[in-house]
Design goal:
The protein is an alpha/beta fold. The protein is about 35% helix and about 25% strand. Strand 11, helix 10 and strand 12 form a beta-alpha-beta unit.
C-alpha cells in the first residue's frame, strides 16, 4: 500500500526522532524511503556556503544510514522553494504513496512545523499524510506516543462523508496487515443537533449505528476485534477523549469532512485532531483532479 514514502526532514532533533521510528511502516509494505530536505528561497544563499552545505549533507547522510539500518532502500533530495509546495510536488512526481512529517521541528530559520509547514502540507496534500507528534524533553525530543504501533488499536472517526469512505478503503487494506483492534467512531455533533433536532437524536443514532455495523461487517476476517461507538458531543473533544481513554495507538481519518472548504481547513475537525492528538494521525485526502 505504501511501498514508497517521502519523509520530510529539517535536520532538527524532532526529525531525528521520526527517522528512528520508520521501521513500524514495514508492516504496511514500505520498502523505499525518499528523505527530503526543503530549503526556503530566502535561506538558499546560506545553503550555498560550503561549510553550511557540508553540515547539512552530513546530517542527511546520518539520517539516511539510520533509515537504511531499519531495512529500507533510501534516497535523498534537497529542494529549494516553498517548503510545503516542494514536499507535495516531489511526493507526486516521485510517485510516493505517503508523506511522513513531524508536528514539531524547525527549519534553518527556526520555524515551528505545525502551524507552519505541516499545516500547509496537510492543507495542500494530494497524498496521504502521516503526522507524527513529537514532544520536547530536557534531553531533546521524543515521539509523544513512545510505544507507537501502527496496527495495535486504530481509531477511525467517520462522518460518513465521501472522504471518510475513501479513508475507510485505506483502513480495509491496512486490515490485511494484521490489525488487532479497530474502533469505529461517529460523533453526533451537538452544535448541529441541539436544540432544534434533539427530538431526532434517537433516529440519527439508529441510522448511524446501522452504517457502522455495515462497516464492521466489511472488516470481519481482516481485523481481530472491531468496536462501535456513537457519542453525543463536540467532535474534536470527544475524539481526543477516546484516544486518551481507550489506548488508541493510531488514528486514521479523512482530511475533508462534510462541507469542507479549502480556505477553512485550519478550523476543520481533521486539522484540530491532527493538532491535538497524542498519537500519530494518518490523514487521507480527497482525490483531486
Amino acid at each position: 500500500m505504501f511501498e514508497r514514502i517521502l519523509v520530510a526532514t529539517d535536520m532538527s532533533s524532532a526529525s531525528n526522532v521520526i527517522v528512528n521510528y520508520l521501521g513500524e511502516l514495514k508492516k504496511l509494505g514500505t520498502k523505499e524511503c525518499l528523505l527530503v530536505q526543503c530549503i526556503k528561497a530566502m535561506e538558499s544563499a546560506a545553503f550555498l556556503i560550503a561549510q553550511d552545505k557540508e553540515i547539512l549533507m552530513a546530517a542527511m547522510e546520518e539520517q539516511k544510514k539510520i533509515i537504511e539500518r531499519q531495512g529500507f532502500i533510501v534516497s535523498t533530495e534537497v529542494a529549494i522553494g516553498t517548503v510545503h509546495t516542494e514536499i507535495n510536488r516531489i511526493a507526486k512526481e516521485k510517485d510516493c504513496s505517503l508523506i511522513v512529517i513531524g508536528s514539531h521541528g524547525h527549519s534553518l530559520a527556526g520555524e515551528i512545523f505545525l502551524g507552519g509547514v505541516a499545516t500547509n502540507v496537510l492543507h495542500n496534500a494530494v497524498k496521504p499524510v502521516l503526522l507524527m507528534r513529537i514532544k520536547r524533553t530536557g534531553e531533546g525530543a521524543c515521539l509523544q506516543c513512545e510505544n507507537w504501533s501502527i496496527n495495535r488499536h486504530i481509531l477511525f472517526p467517520t462522518d460518513f462523508s465521501q472522504n471518510a469512505d475513501l479513508a475507510f478503503s485505506y483502513l480495509k487494506e491496512l486490515g490485511k496487515t494484521g490489525i488487532e483492534k479497530v474502533t469505529l467512531l461517529h460523533i453526533q455533533d451537538n452544535s448541529k443537533i441541539s436544540p432544534y433536532l434533539d427530538y431526532k437524536l434517537e433516529e440519527f443514532n439508529r441510522i448511524d449505528r446501522d452504517r457502522l455495523e455495515r462497516m464492521k461487517d466489511a472488516l470481519s476476517g481482516v481485523v481481530k476485534k472491531t468496536d462501535i461507538k456513537i457519542i453525543y458531543g463536540l467532535p474534536v473533544h470527544e475524539i481526543i477523549k477516546v484516544i486518551k481513554e481507550e489506548g488508541v495507538s493510531q488514528v486514521i481519518m479523512g482530511s475533508q469532512g462534510r462541507g469542507f472548504m479549502y480556505d477553512i481547513f485550519i478550523g476543520s475537525v481533521s486539522y484540530q485532531v491532527a493538532r491535538m492528538s497524542p498519537v500519530p494521525v494518518l490523514l487521507i485526502p480527497m482525490k483531486r483532479d
